[in-house]
Amino acid sequence: MRIANGRTDPAARPVDLSELTSSDRRLARTILDNLDTTCLSNEHTATAKITLMAAVQCCLAGLMHAAHTDGSVPEHTTARIEATATWWAERDLPIAVLHHAIHASVTVAVDLAGKQLFRYGAPAIHRSGMLMVDALRALTVAVSRGYSSEVRAASTQQRAADQSLTAALLADGTTLTQAHHDTLSAHYLVVAVALARHPQEDHLDVDGRIVARRKLRRVQAELATIAEPKVLSLLSTDGGTLLIPTTATIDIEGTDTSAGDWAGRLITRLGHSAGAPVTATAVAARRDEIPQATEIAHHLLDLAVLLQRGPGLHLFRDLACEYQITRPGPANQRLQSYLRPLEATPELHETLRTYLATEGSRQATARRLEISVNAVRHRLQRITELTGLDPQTTPDRWNLIAGMITRNADTRSASRTRHTD
């Protein structure tokens, strides 16, 4: 206690919280009885309440020490609260209950201190209040640190296990244990995902790799919030594969409508979390057909990106025709041959591409290419002379569209192969 001008300095007077002793279970029991613990599972209710009682007593003892020493909550108090929070997280108990217990303890301490310091005036009450605020901050940080460290460690371990399981399913499944077979679904929706670049990835004043990793973590965090169905994923910063359990017995080239609708909403959510467009394609499969379905799904994804179908989920039925004509074979080679005569004249190839993209509008083609309508007409005539197909007639236009798709898909596939090699 400090003396100023022969009088007691009320702001420096220690708070007499004699009721707050570690041996006094009555006050701790009162605090605990007023807490809402209905969210605790039956499996852990009894043990959790005992742990809460100990945590409240620990808080009260720490608050008593802070009040009597005019200082902060002891380190051994915050360490014990942090350990309690870790124990809480290990059992997947809600952190809100623990926070409420800490806040209730501080509230009781503030109430008692306020009543005892009322006669000393506003300065003493203010100082005591600031001590309690600092104590609340220290205890809250201890809870958050202990809980989050355990959740982070558990999440890392679970993610590694899930990635190993996903990789096994995407391969041939031979490394799966009997325990895996007992818990896995018999049918899955295989979703190929393309994560577009976040706008900040191209900023010169930031590291694009860091932005990309943050984008990926946000997507993974969003997936982690889904309890049912449990979505398995194998993702990188530019995309990957999701496996969504389904209950339908369907052919590998079909798609379960209900699962497709749910997956479509999921892709929209992932786009919001990523802060960047997400394009995806989906194919339904039995568990033993996942490798084959994955190959099909990613081929469809290449087509969706190539044809600029836009963000969102595209099902097999949406790209079935394009998928079929891009499969290797005589028909594919024949379709590609339609455009070979235009290889030496890039302006004709660009005119044809634009004309087909504008659904056969010469005016729109002229505006996009910034040339006259007559120039477009002359170029279309030249295309007909070189290819033998008239893009202004419906049958020939379809053949030219198919040729454009197959040729672009083949070029994209060859480019990706060279990049991989």
Provide an overview of this structure.
The protein has 15 helices and seven strands. It is α+β, with helices and mostly antiparallel strands and 421 residues long. A five-stranded mixed sheet has the order 4-5-3-6-7, with helices on both faces. Strands 1-2 form a two-stranded antiparallel ribbon. The longest helix has 49 residues, at 122-170. The chain is elongated.
In short:
By secondary structure, the protein is an alpha+beta fold. The chain is 62% helix and 9% strand.
List the helices and strands and how they pair.
Blueprint: E1 3-4, E2 7-8, H1 25-33, H2 45-69, H3 75-90, H4 95-117, H5 122-170, H6 178-183, E3 187-195, H7 208-224, E4 232-236, E5 239-246, H8 257-274, E6 278-286, H9 290-306, E7 312-315, H10 316-325, H11 330-337, H12 346-357, H13 362-369, H14 373-387, H15 394-420
Parallel strand pairs: 6-7
Antiparallel strand pairs: 1-2, 3-5, 3-6, 4-5
InterPro entries: CdaR-like_regulators, PucR_C-HTH_dom, PucR_C-HTH_sf
Domain PucR C-terminal helix-turn-helix: 348-400
Protein name: PucR-like helix-turn-helix protein
Provide the CATH superfamily of the largest domain.
Reverse transcriptase/Diguanylate cyclase domain
Q: Give me the side-by-side strand order of the main sheet.
A: 4-5-3-6-7
Helix vs. strand class: alpha+beta
Bulk shape: elongated
Domain PucR C-terminal helix-turn-helix: 348-400
Pfam family, one: HTH_30
Protein name: PucR-like helix-turn-helix protein
